[in-house]
Amino acid sequence: MTKSQRSKLRKAVVILVVVATVACGGSVASPTPPILHPAPSASTTPTSSEPTPTPSPTATPNATAHPLVYAAIGASETVGVGSAQPPQDAWPAVFLGMALPMGTEYHNFGISGERTAGAITDELPGALAVHPTVVTIWLNVNDLIAQVSVADYQTELQTLVHALRQGGAAKVLVANTPYLDRLPLYLACRGGAGAAGCSQVASLPGPDVVNSEVAAYNAAIASVTSTEGAILVDLHADGEVPDLHPQWVSADGFHPSTAGYVQVAGRFAAAYRG
Asked: Alpha carbon of 200 to those of 10, 15, 218, 252, 254: distances in Å?
């Protein structure tokens, strides 16, 4: 990708994220205080006709003397921007109910707008302080926004994952980047002036540029998970979600909806169970 293409991609995604966050009333969130499983509400019930992974018989035992400690690391998706009732509808809270035992201690360290480098400073210390045994990470789009090179992104992600693995003491799941080129907000802004919040966009990069950058990041994520013994959660494998499952996209046209977060949680749950 040329420097010019990367610059266009950065401008495009910056505008899309700003518009989407404002539309949802998004803001920087402080880490949630620890709570014990169960946490999800009735609104987390899957609405899709497709099967969503269900807890195995070993997924909901009685609380033990040594409960799991779950730490969620991420950005606006981890906070639950786009859902009806964040943070309870955020995918980590849903994943907690789907896959982890009763009595699990839950900490959500997600911060809207966070990049991987920022998470090392802002989220990692708090996560390590609670000695997690299960960790989820979803950080990539904001790094794309900031034009973080693939090499730097990979180095930062590896630093984060390596620290959270704690020498193998924690099970760490890392999501890759889903398709972005069919998101409603991207398509609206590609249409030029007239779309809400897009009046200053002269030209957005085509889907080939966006997909190329996403593929490069996803290769880096796959490399890090393999090297560090973490688990890859392949959100990209769901394909062009806005076309296939429009109900999984929130009204802002960018973040997942409440139903979308249920599906994301299901992907993490399936990966967790292996």
From this structure: 14, 9, 30, 18, 18
- Sheet architecture: strand order including 105-108: 35-36, 105-108, 69-74, 134-138, 171-175, 231-233
The position carrying tokens 């990692």 is 124
Q: Is the pLDDT of residue 85 over 90?
A: yes
Query: 177 with 241: CB under 8 angstroms?
Result: no
Q: What is the torsion angle, in degrees rounded to the nearest 10, for the CA atoms of residue 118, residue 110, residue 52 and residue 187? A: -60
251 has pLDDT over 60: yes
The pTM score is 0.79
Residue for token digits 């899309």? 16
Minimal CA–CA distance to 263: which of 48, 108, 84, 72?
A: 48
Cα four-point dihedral sign 170, 67, 234, 176: negative
pLDDT in tens, 179-190: 999 988 888 887
* β-pair type (35-36, 105-108): antiparallel
Residue 184's pLDDT is: 85
What is the Cβ-side half-sphere exposure of residue 151, based on CA atoms within 13 angstroms? Answer: 0
DSSP letter assigned to residue 205: P
Mean pLDDT of 207-225: 96
CA angle, corner 240, sides to 237 and 242, nearest 5?
A: 130
- In sequence order, the β-bridge partners of residue 231 are 173
pLDDT of 119 over the 70 cut: yes
Place of tokens 């809400």: 196
For Cα atoms 188, 113, 233, give the angle at the middle one, nearest 5 degrees.
Answer: 85
Q: Which two tokens stand for residue 245?
A: 């499952």
Question: Hey, what are 143's tokens?
Answer: 């790094």
